[in-house]
Amino acid sequence: RTEIARIFADMEHFDGQDVTVCGWTRTIRDMKNFGFIELNDGSCFKSIQVVFEEGSLENYKEIAKQNVGAALIVQGKVVLTPQAKQPLEIKAASIQVEGPSAPEYPLQKKRHGVEFLRTVAHLRPRTNLFSAAFRVRSVAAFSIHEFFQNRGFVYVHTPIITASDCEGAGEMFRVTTLDPENAPRLENGQIDYSQDFFGKPASLTVSGQLNAENFAMAFGNVYTFGPTFRAENSNTQRHAAEFWMIEPEMAFCDLAGDMDVAEDMIKYVIRTVLERCPQEMDFFNSFVDKGLLERLQHVASADFGRVTYTEAVEILKQHNDKFDFKVEWGTDLQTEHERFLTEQVYKRPVFVTDYPKEIKAFYMRLNDDGKTVAATDCLVPGIGEIIGGSQREERLDVLEARIQELGMNPQDYWWYLDLRRYGSCKHAGFGLGFERMVMYLTGISNIRDVLPHPRTVGSADF
Ligand code: 4AD
Ligand code: MG
């Protein structure tokens, strides 16, 4: 079989050639003694037009009554059609029905809303919107590997099951083999996890960072790229219970260096996707978000803004009348504030740095003011936070004091503290939410529509 992508990529070569293509029917039109099929095999975004005629097909009647969604094997000649809307077509010599499609097939030629398409998540990859989204997702993922591999970063696989809560937010999914009804209990009635599979409570990871830090202290520059899980009860367009995160970790690197890498990475991914997915990106620009291409091209070449949390709060306070949640120094920035900063004030991506330590995780490096930590969030228009990162606390005494202060158990982090005992060094890293990056690249506004099989509060079908 010949992939349709190959035919479009080398039209002159295929002109007049006999080919066999296999794919699924997007549309079918019967004009009595001839007909047209738009066939899509997923090898590229575009479908190919197949012309079939009563005179040359012995099973013409069978083909003409096929429904949208049918799997077909088409054999025929490629003909260039420079005057027509599509650059070429296949004149079918034979068409074989590999798998017919029942008439109640939910995807018809009309445009369906994304809400409806979420109810048929097993079929939606066969629509233009989702074909483009998941194709861009694939190219973006590859380009992220390329970005880090080209710079000599080592790819580390960090565990999915863990006993530590990296972000300290208590939003972990418990992993257990105990049956809650018959689980062994402590005297106080709580489940006795010492008799569980791992001999202690274990959960799905919220971040690979702590493990990545172990490897950065041996390999210098590393990155992870894997699924992470959060039992956050937030039903928003930007939160999923299962999402993918890219987490580089760099030894001998400070916060400024961390932001430089983050900015370069985002620009690299944008440029790569614009270059390798022109049809998909044109589609998004026409049907999802007019102005997307222009905006991304601009972002790929302009500097990101950089502002401290304290400065950002001064700016935002002047607009408190516009916000549901009023800002003052010490409050965590909400999406409405993040979007205001990046959309109204900076009109481009911006890094906010040096947040109050109270609203950030335990591992972030304490600044000399004793109040703020060397953290950074990268905010982008349309979404808000896309990256969270920081320089890490490399001083054993300061880290131990912070762990005490937060009432965490230092024993749980003995190995993490060890890194500060044996050759500790300045280091930094960040986490890019991959789905939010894909949303940014495509203009798609709901995280459920960039995840192949989304898991969100109350929904884990398919
Ligand atoms: O800001 P977060 O919580 O940072 C960390 O987990 C750090 N350990 C990263 C690091 O420094 N290595 O999460 C990082 C990013 C966020 O900026 C956001 O893009 C994404 O992960 N994210 C989510 N994406 C989808 N659904 C959720 N529930 C998300 N929570 C965070
Ligand atoms: Mg964050």
From TrEMBL:
Domain of life, per lineage:
Bacteria
Question: Assembly and partners?
Answer: Homodimer.
Name the catalysed reactions: tRNA(Asn) + L-asparagine + ATP = L-asparaginyl-tRNA(Asn) + AMP + diphosphate + H(+)
- Lineage start: Bacteria, Bacillati, Bacillota, Clostridia, Eubacteriales
Which terms under GO biological process does the entry name? Answer: asparaginyl-tRNA aminoacylation
Family note: Belongs to the class-II aminoacyl-tRNA synthetase family.
The record's subcellular locations are: Cytoplasm
Q: Where is the Aminoacyl-transfer RNA synthetases class-II family profile domain?
A: 129-452
Q: What is its main location?
A: cytoplasm
Kindly provide the name given to this protein in its UniProt entry.
Asparagine--tRNA ligase
Enumerate the UniProt keywords alphabetically: Aminoacyl-tRNA synthetase, ATP-binding, Cytoplasm, Ligase, Nucleotide-binding, Protein biosynthesis
- Signal peptide feature range: none
Q: Where are the transmembrane segments?
A: none
**What PROSITE patterns does the record point to?**
AA_TRNA_LIGASE_II
The record's CDD domains line, in alphabetical order, gives: AsxRS_core, EcAsnRS_like_N
| Gene Ontology molecular function | asparagine-tRNA ligase activity; ATP binding; catalytic activity, acting on a protein; nucleic acid binding; transferase activity
EC annotation? Answer: 6.1.1.22
Please provide, in alphabetical order, the Gene Ontology terms of the cellular component aspect for this entry: cytoplasm
Q: Which Pfam families match?
A: tRNA-synt_2 (PF00152), tRNA_anti-codon (PF01336)
